[in-house]
Amino acid sequence: MKVAFLGLGVMGYPMAGHLVKNSHEVCVYNRTTEKAKKWVGEFGGSFGQTPAQAVKDAQIVFVCVGNDDDLRSVCLDQQGAFTAMSEGALMVDHTTTSAAVARELYDKAKQMGLSFMDAPVSGGQAGAENGVLTIMCGGDQADFDRSKPVQDSYAQAVSRMGGVGAGQLTKMVNQITFVGAVQAIAEGLVFAEKAGLDAKQVVDVISKGAAGSWQLSNRGHTMVDDEFDFGFAVDWVRKDLGFALDEARKNGSALPITGLIDQYYKEVQRMGGGRWDTSSLIKLLRDK
After folding, report:
1. pLDDT for the residue numbered 198
2. What average pLDDT does this structure show over 16-39?
3. CB atoms within 10 A of CB 258
């Protein structure tokens, strides 16, 4: 299939590469053209100087950028994707955004004879590189059906969660849940250290029982070692939690623990840890 991929960050770069490996014809765009040239040198395919150039004749356009404003810009600017996508073409947005912008762009796409689906991902940089992401989609069933085989190029699970915006709402649940797990692990490991236990051995033992989780298995040892120069950045999780807290105010959900953890991450930012991995919550407890 002829596809385009807009946004070659730590997630988009390997995701677009998997599309080539699965025999799709890929044209990429990145705000920094040098990165697009580097990608072409590594994977083949082609690049466009603008989103409009990159999406020409593409049947599906994938996007993975930073936030709501970045997504609007890539879609709606004078040289944006929507100005040049072929009639009937589908945009699949892998950015984590608000549900509101997903609905806005879905409506705009329909007015222009296009299709739009929100499809945020979970699994981090390692999941993107290894092609084992989990993707949560919101949109029309027909659009999901035609895009899923292509998304399978870099995913282990691709699910339609409902109409437009449902993917973003599901991603909010993911973020609410995982930050709670990180805070609990941080408290447990500091307790283990102060109790004189071998914290890494504790991780290995309890990960096999009811306390087991992805966060414990993949971040437990690095938390003990005070290593945070990798992974999902604090700045990005605060963006995501902002979406969740805003949506909770609209739908009447109570998120007391999530709100508290968001403030803990704000403290990590003040420590200079905006680009540290989210597991850096443990540093707040160690410093007390």
Report:
1. 98
2. 98
3. 20
Confidence at residue 194, expressed as pLDDT on a 0 to 100 scale: 96
From the CB of residue 153, how many other CB atoms can be counted at a distance below 10 Å?
19
CB 85 within 8 A of CB 58: yes
Q: What is the pTM of this model?
A: 0.95
Domain ranges of the chain: 2-162, 169-286
Class of domain 169-286: mainly alpha
Please indicate whether residue 35 is annotated as part of the active site: no
Angle of helix 256-270 relative to helix 166-194, nearest 10 degrees, comes to: 70
What does CATH list as the number for 2-162? 3.40.50.720
Mean pLDDT of the chain: 97
Q: H or E segment at 102?
A: helix 99-111
Report the distance separating Cα 234 and Cα 267, nearest Å.
10
Considering the candidates 37, 110, 171, 200, report the single residue annotated as catalytic. 171
Instruction: Read off the pLDDT of residues 175-223 as tens digits, 9 standing for 90 and up.
Output: 999 999 999 999 999 999 999 999 999 999 999 999 999 999 999 999 9
Cα 161 from Cα 190, distance rounded (Å): 37
